Amino acid sequence: MSYDSSPSYPVPPHHPPHNSSPSYSTYPTQPTYPWAPQQPDPEPARQPNRHRHTALGHHSDLRVLRTAYRWQRRVATLTALGYFTLFLVLSAWAPAFMTREVADGLPLGLMLGLFQMPVTCVAIALYEYTARRGVDPIAERIRKQTELDTKRAEAGR
């Protein structure tokens, strides 16, 4: 098709040509011969390990803490759930035992059911006791060691 320059058709505006390729300075420099041997980048100088403790992720205290916490959970959970499971088993397979009267009109099953609340409180107290005695000192030791390692790392910078 040809361009009609008659007055009935307006002339499109003239735009300067657009350079679609950026200058060569914006590209990263590439070696002329990529198969030629390259000089290796110099490695940064390593500082000697001045700390006698290993990194916290590989610290043996974390394993000890996990073990203490696992033991704590098991003891408290088995205390509460063990008593409740015993109550359920006796209710299902020993109904004659559970209906035996202990006091004036108080069946053994009801008395054992009422003891569920004190046993739960004992499980909570046992959980807190084992936390204070076994888990918290280990966690505090790890916390202090982490603070010391952080201060040493900041001082070494």
TrEMBL record:
Keyword check for Membrane: yes
This protein's UniProt keywords: Membrane, Transmembrane, Transmembrane helix
One Pfam family cited in the UniProt record for this chain: DUF485
Chain residue ranges for the region called Disordered: 1-57
TM stretches of this protein: 75-94, 106-127
UniProt biased composition (Low complexity): 18-33
Name this polypeptide is given: DUF485 domain-containing protein
Organism in which the protein naturally occurs: Streptomyces phaeochromogenes
